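User: Structure with pyridoxal-5'-phosphate, tokens only please.
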Amino acid sequence: MTTPFAPMPDAQGYFGPYGGQLVPPFLKQAMDDIGKAYAEITQRADFQQELRELQTDYVGRPSPIFHARRLSQQLGGAQIHLKREDLNHTGAHKINHCLGEALLARFMNKTKVIAETGAGQHGVALATACALVGIPCEIHMGQVDIEKEHPNVTKMRILGATLVPVTRGAATLKEAVDNAFEEYLKDPTNYFYAIGSVVGPHPFPMMVRDFQSIVGREAREQFLGKHGKLPDYAAACVGGGSNAMGLFTAFLEDESVKLVGVEPAGEGTDKPGRHAATLTMGKPGEIHGMKCYVLEDAPGVPAAVHSIASGLDYPGIGPQHSYLKDIGRVQYEVADDKETLDAYMRLSRVEGIVPALESAHAVAWAMRVAPGLGKEVNILVNLSGRGDKDADYVAHKLGL
Ligand SMILES: *Cc1c(COP(=O)(O)O)cnc(C)c1O
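Assistant:
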């Protein structure tokens, strides 16, 4: 039986009209080599066994699903359930694909793993995975983010990673991506670029999705086992889109499950440069080696973006999300900085769970819609990470 989703992507890395490899020929060769190695190595029993063992014994999988009873009761409508990716070692979903990528790099005999990081979560997760696997790790990070995410910066250094501060432009995630990419181009044969989300040229959107898809596979089985049915909604915040694809992939064929991606509206989608709602406000274009929705000032000129969550401020979006939006399988909504802060505080005080500001976007959406839904309706939210890293920033912002 054929479905709209399998096989996704096609051999050229396209999800409908999105994705592909918009890179120069020598780089296309490097990407194809990674794709080929990925296909071969991930089929090997020794790779699969090592990855499975590390997911269990090192990351602490499976992560539980927690029924936020008090929050649901207060809201007076739908039941909110949280997939606790915040409980993973290093505190976010990112360790899932970092472990996969670092292990793949080692199996490919690479000499250095390079990456960009926004909130610092990808950098910490990758530095962790590289320490574990035994490969030198170089992290590029915007100066603005370095100042905002100090604890993560310190952690990366402790873990032995080399930190490269990026001061050009807005000095956030987008510039860090450009800088890391330039370093990678110096020796694509020996370096491995570990992209931090389901973005970039093929095969990265596919690889990162596959390594993340354990989130949805677990969640589907856990929810079915506990409730005897699937959730009515599965929701996740969307930056590049990896935690959302990780959750959504297992549910794509389940028509009864409404999938909701929540983008950052920042200070308002009516304020250009002050949000990062790529699918909601952008249009099809190109960025970082792929076709996808983009926010841009002119063709090829990415717009400035903002979100209270630095892990979400990216002017592009994964190609599969772009496709899922067009075919209507996933509904994309927004949450702004203010309601995200409210959700951060509310979840902390009502359930004793401090969410990452990124994840709080998805919680904010659930809190907004729950009161209008029946008590028998179940919303599963991917709590992509924990919010310790944001605590000082939030306390300062709220005068706590
Ligand atoms: C990086 C990050 C995100 C955003 O990345 P996606 O690829 O969209 O998942 C979301 N939540 C947390 C906790 C993060 O660290």
